[in-house]
Structures are given as C-alpha cells and as structure tokens.
Amino acid sequence: MGRADLHVHSSASDGLCPPREVVRRAYGVGLDALALTDHDTLAGLAEAAREARSLGIDFLAGCEISIVDAELDVHLLAYAVDPDAAQLNSLLKAIHQGRVGRVREMVRRLRAAGAGVTFEQVVHQAAGSYSIGRMHVARALVAGGFSPSIEMAFARWIGNSGEVYVPKRTPGASEALAAVRAAGGVAVLAHPGLYGIDTAEARFAEWDVDGIEVYHPAHREADLRRLLDWAERRECVVTGGSDWHGDEHPAGYIGSVSVAAEVVAQLRARAARRERA
Ligand SMILES: [Zn+2]
Ligand SMILES: [Zn+2]
Question: Do both 63 and 112 map to the same domain?
Fold first, then answer.
C-alpha cells in the first residue's frame, strides 16, 4: 500500500520550495500521493498538479485556512477543492487583505505612540513571506531600536495585552466550511493537539468537518489513541502529514509523517458525497 503526505507547504505561502519542487521531493522520497496545503492560498496548485501529472504521483488540491474561533487561531485543511472556485478564492483573499490591513493598523498606532517603524520595514522583515504578521512587526521594532527583543515587543506593544494590540479579523468556522463545500471539497480539522487535547473535542463538537488530522509532527504519541477515538466517534476520515515547510523546518522532512494513500480516495469519496447531497 502506498503512502500519502497530506500536509505540505510551498513557497506559494511560507514554504521554501516552489510547488513543482515540492512535488519532486515527494516523488523522490517515494510517496505515492501528495496534497499541497499552502496557508490561505490556492496559487501553487496548478503548478504542483502539472508536475504531479508528469511524474505520475497522485495529487490532491488543498489549502490550510486560518480562522479565528473565540480568540483562538485555528487551522482548517481543505481538500479536493476546485482551485477556481469563486467563493473560496474570495474568502482567502479576504484573509490575506485582513492580514495586511492589520499590520498597517499596528504600524499606524505604533508611529502615533512614538515607535517610528514603517510598513515597508515590516514587509522587509517578512522577506517575501505571503503570511505577513505580528512576528514581522516585532522584528522591525527590534531592528529599529524600539524594542530590545521580540518578546519585549510583544509584551509592550503588539501582544494581546500590548499598547497597540489590533485583533485579527478572519472568517469564522461556518463561513470557511461553507466556502470549502461550495468549492466541492471537504474540510479537516488541522493538528487538534495544538489547541489543547483535553478540550479540543468538546470545543469543535459543532463543526461539521469530514476529517481529523490525527498524524502530525506536533502530536504526542500519547494523544494518538484519543484522536483516533474521536475520529471514529464522529465518523471522520483520519488524515495526517508532515506540515513540511522546507528542509530548514524543524518539524521534519516531507513524508516524515504520512498516511495510507487510500485516505486520498476516502477524502475524494466524501467530497463526491457532499456534492450529491
Ligand atoms: Zn497549521
Ligand atoms: Zn501547515
């Protein structure tokens, strides 16, 4: 039985390798199937799909959507989506614009408070990263001599209790789930272990997801049984992947976490069932 890595990032979001290179690496380590799941963008999918076709590796179109639920940042993996779907594309665009708008607002407030960083300096810190955010603002504050450290930048200025804190505006779960469905896809709760394993299942009980990402580098061995039970109780597909961002990433290499390639067929079947319903 072949193996599939269903959680991988390319340079279309914050990974280091271009989409075609990601597919080559997946092929190179002997994977039979791959899903590209860049943060809040579908921009890498066409290139990855082309490369997968030419190498003969099964490719599943995906993305990882950032949502905020009761002040908690949550990631939702979408699979088998149509990369041209209008509603999903506009949702992802709104997330991106919200991110940029938030940084601009933080910079405006910082300047008013006497910490004269510019938006361009923050962009420079982001160095081409699609997901510009608070970490880049913090680095610009340190580089500009307005804060002695990243930690202090968060504590004094931009952290949740900071002087110029700006809350995130992202879609909620129901909006994201609707957009995934309208794109013909299915949604999977990403790395639930990161949200607190003791409360995660109750917290996400109302979310109509088709799968749970049980296998993830950040999950502890001791939590796997609980996650598998959860998935079984909810009749969810059990997914997994390496969350690989490029060789430098400490989480592990592409394919270091994988599932049976038949999981891809299970996700496609669920997507087809959703479309018929
Ligand atoms: Zn994530
Ligand atoms: Zn990820």
Answer: no
CA of 212 to the centre of ligand 2 (A): 14
Residues 39 and 98 in one domain: no
The distance between the two most distant Cα atoms of the chain, rounded to a whole number of Å, is 61
pLDDT at 16 over 90: no
- For the record, the structure tokens of 157 come out as 């200025």
Instruction: Compute the distance from residue 36 Cα to the ligand 2 centre, in Å.
Output: 10
- Ligand 2 centroid vs 178 CA: distance in angstroms? 21
Ligand closest in space to the Cα of 245: 2
Q: Which ligand is nearest to the CA of 244?
A: 2
The pTM score is: 0.89
Does residue 155 sit in the same domain as residue 39? no
Same domain? For 124 and 146 the reply is yes
User: For residue range 104-114, what is the model confidence (pLDDT) as tens digits?
Assistant: 999 999 999 99
Question: Contact, 23 vs 57, CB < 8 A?
Answer: yes
State yes or no: pLDDT of 68 exceeds 90: no
Mean pLDDT along residues 127-152: 90
The CATH number for 210's domain is: 3.20.20.140
| Residue where a domain stops, chosen among 150, 182, 214 | 182
CA–CA separation, 63 vs 202, rounded Å? Answer: 25
